[in-house]
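Aim 2 progress update. The chain analyzed this quarter is reproduced below.
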Amino acid sequence: MRVSVKNMTLGVGSYLGIIGGGYWWALSQREDAAKKELGEKAEDEQGNPKQFSEEERLAIFREGASGYDKQIGTDETVMGLNLLRRWLLRQAKGKVLEVAGGTGRNLEYFPQSVELTIIDLCEGMMAETERKLRKSRRGDVTFGRMDVNRMSFPSRTFDTVCDTFGLCSFEDPQQSLQEMERVCKDDGQILLLEHGRSHYQWLNAILDKNSHRHTARWGCVWNRDIEKMVREAGLEVTSMTRWHFGTTYLIHAKPGKREGDQMKREDKGGDGKRKGDRRRREDEGGDGKRRGWWAWLSGRRPTWTKQQP
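Predicted structure tokens:
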């Protein structure tokens, strides 16, 4: 039986329309339910949008860690975000740092040849990463809890620094970007996959109106101007594409000019060694040894875990 092009086009169009319409209806129903459920969490006593602290957002991540992958899996597949993750992270090379690694959704997308380090501030998310690593075929992976705004790594350590959907959750995203730049080698690369403001004001108005509810549900702020933050942080953007009406950002960048750049907050001493980098947030003890964020936070080193082959 021969099928005409017209009938085939009509059939495919109808199928896609039914699937798309059904998904949109299910999504709208879920959003309506979320608005009712999150009303108290997202608003203060006067009914105004609530401003969430870092501790409150961390609590949201911690509570949702075990079910996070299942909850967002369908949405990411429909939107093609898995393909964007794969396309971006296959460019990673050498010594790689992933910040805000979350539940380890990117593990399968990194080349097997890289030396991978993963950090996240949420213990619940890191527990999910550890569970996946035990089941994976990846070799030597280092992972642990660390604040991206106060990383203890020496400057110019990594060939690739990457983050996927983390800038929406950081307390100070511009400082986070500057820290990512600090630990990246001069000839290294910074890979970002983020979501934020749109090309279109009508969509930005929707994002702004519902931002507090989205934060109450997911812990992230979805209406930040990602492009502006990246450029103001001093990174040199080598390529950028935007998807989904401009709300998804795929960015390839590299460290900007380091010397004499006030954005980097660095000086050099007469001996040629870098000094005074305030962004490192490191103290020095009487013995002259560097101490990272744990020195003032808890007085001890964080626990690092090595995943062996």
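The chain has a mean pLDDT of 80. The radius of gyration is 22 Å. These observations will guide the mutagenesis experiments scheduled for the next reporting period.
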